[in-house]
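Sample log: TetM/TetW/TetO/TetS family tetracycline resistance ribosomal protection protein.
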Amino acid sequence: MTIKAEQTIKLRNVGIFAHVDAGKTTTTEQMLYQSGNIRALGSVDAGTAQTDWLDVERERGISVRAAVTRFAWKETPINLVDTPGHVDFLSEVERSLRVMDGAVLIVSAVEGVQAQTEIIWQALRELEIPTIIYVNKMDRIGADAPRVLADLHRLLSPGAVPIAAPIGAEADFMGSVDLMDASAMAGHPWAEPYRQRLLEAAAEQDEALLEAYLEGHPLDERQAALALVAGAHRSSLFPVLFGASNRGIGVKELMDAVLAYLPDPAGSVTAPVAGVIFKMERDPVMGKIAYVRLYQGTIRNRDTLLNHTRGMQDKVTQIRRVHGQKSEDIGVLAAGDIAAVYGLSRARIGDVLGTPEGVPGEKRLAVPLLTVQVQWGSEADYPAVVAAFQELADEDPLLDLQWLQDERELHLKVMGPIQMEVLTSILQSRFKLAVSFGAPSVIYKETPAASGEGFVAYLAPKPCWAILRFVIEPGERGSGLVYKSLVRGERLLESYQNEVARRVPEALQQGLRNWEVTDLSVTLVEGEHHVWHTHPLDFVIATPMGIMNGLAGVGTKLLEPMLRFRMSVPEEYGGKLMNELVVMRGEFEAPVLRQERMELEGLLPVATTLDFPARLGAMTKGRGTLTTFFAGYRECPPDVDVSRQRRGVNPLDQAKYILAVRNALSG
């Protein structure tokens, strides 16, 4: 097949990101309204926002699911993904990041840069997604543009450069002046320092401009404007705008900036299909809805699609364009675009469709640190509760649903208490089921304490034959699992080696204390099959036994999740809080005093902080602030030893394990 060269497509795929309460959904609503997409403005507070359509979103006034909508501005279509702002729904943000060509990051002019802002910013930079920063709420009491700009430079990037200067602040905020518009600047001489900084930034993007700037020559404004766009596309410069979305001020300028500074997608409609599913929903009539970003090729109604991740084919029944809560059948999805695809009944979030070439990888942001058990009132509800949570786990794989059928238990991984409240609400409104959750417990992990070998010779009961020897070694913290095989194909067939490779991660889901084992390398150094006696499933049984044999020999250390924290309290409470942090096994740097407040930064174990936010409020009479973000796992102190109940039979009890697995496989 001849592949047509990539070309840019007149379209924008933009994610809108922010800390909770920065005004993200209000800004989205204004974009839809001012572009003519909707006739009346919705309200977050009134529960009528277009992109907050779940009952729980309308009731609580927060976004919990990423919402896809589409509008046109100056004849350019824009796919806009409004993402949740609360840290408990970071997984929705994570999945949306993967499919964006550009981003709008909203920062409140009052609160400035928050913890969630920094997490999202780091991910945007690692993925090199061009980003516009929109400073919202300039009309609120306490709005301070110079302070927020200093925050942006200190905490995000010195490349954050205003392309407009705010006119007034708080009740006097009137909008902004375009720094590249000489005629507009004429009436606002106070904005000249902003303009000089912008021209400096433009000069830094282009050698010829820099030379002219250093020699004191006036810069060619058209050339400077092109340099700013090129810098934004390269993610070396980040345009900053100011507005008050609740009053509609600054939103048109933001949409203009989206067209000017964020790139078109690239792709070829005639190339082989390459796309990814980044969001799943369920329609009561049509079944699963897969939101697809297509990077290459074209998909049409009734096409048969390869799901590369699952190695299966699915037939497309319908392709629809989503506009907030409405949608229309468009019949075709072309390279560069986003649409809802129906008919992919076996697909899951993250699945690659067609070829993986050109599909970007994932950036992991959300790491659930707590596990909870689901509880239900009536025993008659048990099958319906299981089915409901299986459906929700399809839509959010990070829930990592564990259904223990023998114990009749359901366990989930969660990010925090707000997510648990939202899940309770969704079960009630969508499935008419009343559920609650047990007390959350921390998710620990294990890692090998030393290097050693694991060996298994699975030779009975006949017919079977599988011999494996693994070398198990500790890895660097955060390295996960590194697996390789040194066994030749004539000793162990490639198909059997592939089975072992598939089963090693499964075997490491429960270690000696029944937590996931991580940060290790596993090397298959010996393997043997028998021409007559080996059954293809023998290595399904043998692999966990060999791995657990090795872990029992080397022992494991317990790892606990850590949070990096930033805390600000009135100075008079500082000593008391530092003592509290020491009791919680916290580590912190020397405190910094700023305007009669003490600021502390450091590390805290998750296990000791579950009730700390509430206690901090009580200890400081509501005047303390705490921001935290996940900082990885590290070794527990020797006096901390936590295990959990094993799911299923332990492979160390080989006779019982073989019997259990053989019965399951034959069943």
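Observation: Residues 84 and 109 are 19 Å apart (CA to CA).
Observation: The longest helix spans residues 538-554.
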